[in-house]
Amino acid sequence: MDRSAGFVSVGVGYEVRGGRARCVRKAVETIDVAILGASGYTGAELLRMLAVHPKAKIAAMTADRSAGKPIGEVFPQYGFGSQFAQSLPDLVKVAEVEDWSKYDLIFCCLPHATTQEIISGIPLETTKVVDLSADFRLSNIDTYTAWYGEHKAPYLQKEAVYGLVEHKRDEVRDARLVANPGCYPTAAQLALIPLLKNKSISSTDIIIDAKSGATGAGRSAKVGTLFCEVSDGMHAYGIAQHRHAPEIEQGLSEVTGEDVLVNFTPHLIPMNRGILETIFVKTSESPGALRQQLIEAYEDEPFVHVLPEGVSPHTRHVRGSNHCVMNVFPDRLPGRAIIVSVIDNVVKGASGQAIQNMNVMMGFDETMGLEGQPFFP
Amino acid sequence: MDRSAGFVSVGVGYEVRGGRARCVRKAVETIDVAILGASGYTGAELLRMLAVHPKAKIAAMTADRSAGKPIGEVFPQYGFGSQFAQSLPDLVKVAEVEDWSKYDLIFCCLPHATTQEIISGIPLETTKVVDLSADFRLSNIDTYTAWYGEHKAPYLQKEAVYGLVEHKRDEVRDARLVANPGCYPTAAQLALIPLLKNKSISSTDIIIDAKSGATGAGRSAKVGTLFCEVSDGMHAYGIAQHRHAPEIEQGLSEVTGEDVLVNFTPHLIPMNRGILETIFVKTSESPGALRQQLIEAYEDEPFVHVLPEGVSPHTRHVRGSNHCVMNVFPDRLPGRAIIVSVIDNVVKGASGQAIQNMNVMMGFDETMGLEGQPFFP
Amino acid sequence: MDRSAGFVSVGVGYEVRGGRARCVRKAVETIDVAILGASGYTGAELLRMLAVHPKAKIAAMTADRSAGKPIGEVFPQYGFGSQFAQSLPDLVKVAEVEDWSKYDLIFCCLPHATTQEIISGIPLETTKVVDLSADFRLSNIDTYTAWYGEHKAPYLQKEAVYGLVEHKRDEVRDARLVANPGCYPTAAQLALIPLLKNKSISSTDIIIDAKSGATGAGRSAKVGTLFCEVSDGMHAYGIAQHRHAPEIEQGLSEVTGEDVLVNFTPHLIPMNRGILETIFVKTSESPGALRQQLIEAYEDEPFVHVLPEGVSPHTRHVRGSNHCVMNVFPDRLPGRAIIVSVIDNVVKGASGQAIQNMNVMMGFDETMGLEGQPFFP
Amino acid sequence: MDRSAGFVSVGVGYEVRGGRARCVRKAVETIDVAILGASGYTGAELLRMLAVHPKAKIAAMTADRSAGKPIGEVFPQYGFGSQFAQSLPDLVKVAEVEDWSKYDLIFCCLPHATTQEIISGIPLETTKVVDLSADFRLSNIDTYTAWYGEHKAPYLQKEAVYGLVEHKRDEVRDARLVANPGCYPTAAQLALIPLLKNKSISSTDIIIDAKSGATGAGRSAKVGTLFCEVSDGMHAYGIAQHRHAPEIEQGLSEVTGEDVLVNFTPHLIPMNRGILETIFVKTSESPGALRQQLIEAYEDEPFVHVLPEGVSPHTRHVRGSNHCVMNVFPDRLPGRAIIVSVIDNVVKGASGQAIQNMNVMMGFDETMGLEGQPFFP
């Protein structure tokens, strides 16, 4: 780590009481982080959130097509308004990053499959990695290959920890490489894992009807995600063939100890941010009992919340924040219940969860830099 | 009927071949129709569609709050551009309509529960009625009372025919009072009735995840449907408690001969028009077999279509048109299939279907005035 | 013309009285039209509108990237619902069109600059052309070159008639090649030409603040027009450098007889369709007088309308229709007035106006196939 | 002030360098603030922003219709996620607030005209007020009466300071009652005041074409602001009759020393947040010179920024932040220039500017709690 680049700031940091910043007494150091693929939506969101993170300093950013440009040319919105902008380095090509060891932690926001070779070049003993791509999410190489194609760094798979903090906190704390969970799998697993752990719902009849805003489709130019193709319309896509299905199944199978299959049906909705999953489950227990189990599972979690009985989770409740909000409802069909789980796909489904992982990996307060309230309207 | 108001136009009318207007040889007469509640979304859509209907002349329109105004003041968009506007009568109060018998057919777009008394005052021997409210959809009075409150004209219930033309054509042909189906129930029943008829799917495990644009919430001023509350967000509502559940169940029970319960979970989506229903069913047959059954069930229907294998129905495919488009997909869960059904809730889910009912009731070509292509983008 | 492809339909056609289709007594023939570049937004809109045109039969459609495909694969919404779909030929490459003389009229929806060579290969003595690109809009070759680059068929420029029907009806009637006006210039010139003709406003101080929906940006994949980049935001673009400025100036200069310069400032608005232009003018007359002049200028026009005094034109008033709606308002600044003019950029600003031009060129009723009411909401 | 409610937190606060929170060395105290009218959009935004303000504690909130409810019932999004929610008092009726002196500062988010009597009951010697309504913006009582009706507390008008901090910093520092500027006037005056001060533009020919998102229309239920009425359409409103015109004119007249009239033409745009004003001015100087003057006027301002030459300001550049971004462009018309100014109407146009005013009034760092980066997408 380049000490000169860092700086000691006594008493820096937030304390969540009252949700308002207060001094943390102990002396701490900031760390230097790099963002690979800073010009996409998850990269942009990392910028927005790290700007108010008291301990993470953005020391490098890459974006091959925008290499050489100052941030103000790529994202005018981050190019003014505080010395934050001036503190940001110009964008460079990934290939131009010479010494990875200068950085304490790398956020990798590169496309699936392009990530493996780059990460295999990073010395994990000096530099931790949070990978926002899918490249290290599937621990079974065959499953990865079946859904994404050949894996170029299988040996790293053992190293990778699946960063669903609420259920992997200890592993994440000791991890050097964290695979940041997918957006859909985050909302689904947070709702289902506690109930499967308690054997309260059937593992053979889980139906996940998922709806996502268009940021989930990424920032590359495609006719299908043009404003005029998305607005005022909706459709299902990748029906029973979406790559997030095996990721969800892996997480649930880990809990049940046997192979779980799920119905996962995603839809593109004409909005920017937000995922809402309506999950239909078989259960011998009452919806109230399931709800109670989720309350207990997450009562100490800062980012997962069960709404009051009967209140329907809106994506607006979490927009721009790192929270996941859920609730359980009765079904007209006997022996069934309905779970609704919402997150902001760009935050808890990507960049916010990545920062949450960083906080745990670096021993920071888990909520540091993530206290922002939801954005409304 | 006020003959002077009508006029004979030899060879008027459309013929659908090629989707282009051609003369129908026989001499025909136009009819005089009235629209009660013309200032809401379904009333406005009736205006738009009847403007190009060759045989229906709008002879009266009511809108209590806008009574006395010309159409141009209520809907500037219909107040210019052709003598159509000038042909339209000024709006009046419902109470001011003196002689119902002057009209051949009444479209009733009034709110639920307000409709019964008005319709009970209409002489059905001279004047047919298509009611777009829910007041006559539920044939079982107790069910109606349980979901909507006391019914003020139960004797009319026997008279009322449920106007899902594709499955009630003969009854509609002879009907004097047609209950126009609800928007959600239309998309659901069209997808499910043929499969239940064939006993190809289980009737005890039907899950309907429905998504609708905001026109479905109507045109009355509510904070919950303000632009800033709806845009860039989504949520489920009326979970397991929506009034369209019993309507769907009635239609399906009629087919199976026993009481069917369904899971029906509607969501509000930030768009104007369109309903998409993702229906999860249990089946011992292949998705391909179910798809084939739907193709056969609707091969002669002008308004219901099964897309090519694997093509996902978009609400855009039907936006502004009277079509229902559907398809069947395999499920990762064995013994299950996924059906997707889309309509424009304002057209096939309301005003377009009402005109389709009128056409059948009056012996017009069923597609008359409904040939318009979908609106894109 | 391929007679076998055509067919005689006695009494076909619309008559606008009452805005409802009625038979036109004289025997007429349908014509065969081709659409070049059918897969973009203007091509799609031509399809939607020609589907209900009683005299124009779509005999060929080109779309290079979709060549060989049936319409249903490119636009599922046009691939079902009537024999219209079955009447449509598969898409072909432009280069594959062998005999242009088989078509009575060609709609050219190709990108600027690609059009000239193709059109120069069309025998205008047998086949008329309506070009929706900008290639033949600017009569002055130097101006064209300055804004669009080298012109490849300057000799055709003399032939081309600028198809703003309301002000060029006679020329269009005799034209073989019509340059369909740009979207912004249509709304601007319709508002300004009558007032400049009357010398009622200053020609040296015209400020046009224009706002357009995203369809105006076309259907090619660009990051800047992705849903997430356009929705919930707005910005001005091409400030004082937009190619529609010289087109507007040409039209106004023709009226005044001297070179007119205008301020033209377009903005991208998060919506699909619609252009609204707020035009600030200097005048020695009262706003009421200007308004009266516009009323008189357009009182016999089927597609241009002045709203009642004080009523603000909404793009919703014309959405999906071929109308232009305008009004004049007083300005707090003495000696000034404000004109607001709205159109649907895809209809009156492109495909609808192209059909209006076809109707005039072919001697059809000018409103034929264009009677559709605006789409709301 | 209720000391027990406050608490001393040594070293609390932000320092903007690097846009990251660092300790401010001096010991400081938090203050107790009350929000009157907390259930509207500006009230909600104050909640969101004060949640991360290190020195302002929300001690009371009023919302008459929601009185008695915890925040979680009114705004579920603020009802979880941190002890912030638990730190919030339940909502009460304004009339139920007994002792105003318990609060150091009141944010008044009540409707125009309802505010005067309430504020006249607040003891300004103990309790400062930032009023977000228009009630104290117009210093000339006659002007106020002409546009808003009778003024019920004219004597307070002398007391009120117009809180456009960038141009009133000293007055605001000493103020007890600040009238928070309107959203449109903020964007307009920030762009025009420096140029009028320098006599660089004509004061008799200022044309402001303003476009706003729907939050500007407030949160009360009106048909005109329903999702289906606003989305996919736009229109001008209050043309030459909008109440923000006299407010802008007051600010500009103060600078020029003579009565300035402006053209102010607002438009409703289908988006949530953001105002963009395209301002057309007469000038004898070059656009570059005007641009340079704005750069110099705001070079030390934390919230006002001139973009690089030729870069068009987007509302996205400021969405969710307290920044105003502007630029100057050449006009095709000689002797003219175009200025574009954007803000987030809910932040710099309302709640953010109110906090900026509070910071100055209380002697806090002006940017405290306002460091958040813009929200994208």
Automatic annotation (TrEMBL), chains A, B, C, D:
This is N-acetyl-gamma-glutamyl-phosphate reductase. Keywords: Amino-acid biosynthesis, Arginine biosynthesis, NADP, Oxidoreductase. GO terms for molecular function: N-acetyl-gamma-glutamyl-phosphate reductase activity; NAD binding; NADP+ binding. Residues 32-175 form the Semialdehyde dehydrogenase NAD-binding domain. It catalyses: N-acetyl-L-glutamate 5-semialdehyde + phosphate + NADP(+) = N-acetyl-L-glutamyl 5-phosphate + NADPH + H(+). The active site is at C183. Pathway: Amino-acid biosynthesis; L-arginine biosynthesis; N(2)-acetyl-L-ornithine from L-glutamate: step 3/4. Gene3D superfamilies: Dihydrodipicolinate Reductase, domain 2 (3.30.360.10), NAD(P)-binding Rossmann-like Domain (3.40.50.720). GO terms for biological process: L-arginine biosynthetic process. It comes from the Eukaryota. The keyword Glycoprotein does not apply. Its EC number is 1.2.1.38. InterPro entries: AGPR, AGPR_AS, AGPR_dimerisation_dom, AGPR_type-1, NAD(P)-bd_dom_sf, Semialdehyde_DH_NAD-bd. The keyword Oxidoreductase applies.
